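Workshop exercise sheet. Pairs work together: one partner reads the sequence aloud, the other fills in the structure field after running the prediction. Swap roles for the next sheet.
Pair: D.N. / O.F.
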Amino acid sequence: MEPLLFLISLALGGSALATSVRVINQGDEALVERLGSYNKKLEPGLNFITPVVDKVVYKQTIREKVLDIPPQQCITRDNVSITVDAVVYWRIVDLEKAYYKVENLQSAMVNLVLTQIRSEMGQLELDQTFTARSQINELLLRDLDIATDPWGVKVTRVELRDLIPSKAVQESMELQMSAERRKRASILTSEGDRESAVNSARGKADAQILDAEARQKSIVLQAEAEQKATVLRAQAERQQQVLRAQAIAESAEIIAQKIKTNADAHKAIEVLFALGYLDMGAAIGKSDSSKVMFMDPRTIPATLEGIKSIIGDTQQLPGLNNNRV
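Structure field:
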């Protein structure tokens, strides 16, 4: 009888020892109640509790978790229906509050997020919901973090995944976007045409200016060339006249010297003055101011006779002739 009692007590002791040992994994925590009231929190590792008296009532991970919010209908400030779904990242920072402050933490979190999303969407117009998504995420994160703090929960991130307007709104938006694209295309086309016309006008103006400058330079160069040619012609004529005058003077001097010794000098003088007379007539005929010149051949002998008389006088007056020479 005694061995049987020993075995029974040993079995009961082993069972009690087994129930008094609790192993908590890393990243998890557990709550222990003693006789129905909170006693302590079990940390990761090996923990001991009192059999029969103590009881593990709640065990949960303290790692960050993802809460998938189902799509829901929201009404914007401009009375447009829109479907919104989100993802919330959160973790438990106080396991005691998470268990004793709210009955169903997961359900409470979902309902709280849905309520906050409806509240934020109701304060914005439809266009703002598409352009201010990051601002909406920040507002939701701030409000949810404040609301879940009494539950021992820390909301780390909120992301709106899809914002889907109703079908009618989508069709209206597509028409609006199509009209906006056509408007932008028309504006770009008109701006292109304007720039093309401006560039063409500038090109024509530049071409006309360059053409005018080229013509001006051509006229200036032509005038300079004509001026130089006129100067050269005048210089050539002057040199020619000087050379002719020098030749006549030299000839006259030679003839005057030979008058005393040569009787044929009178004929030479007659020929010389006749040639001078003819040259003078040719020069007058080439003048720009003269159109027609009449020459009487009878004047030539008379001129020659006058010259003979002058020469005769000079021969009769040797002293005077020497003074003139």
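Discussion prompt: The two ends are 194 Å apart (CA to CA). What would you look at next?
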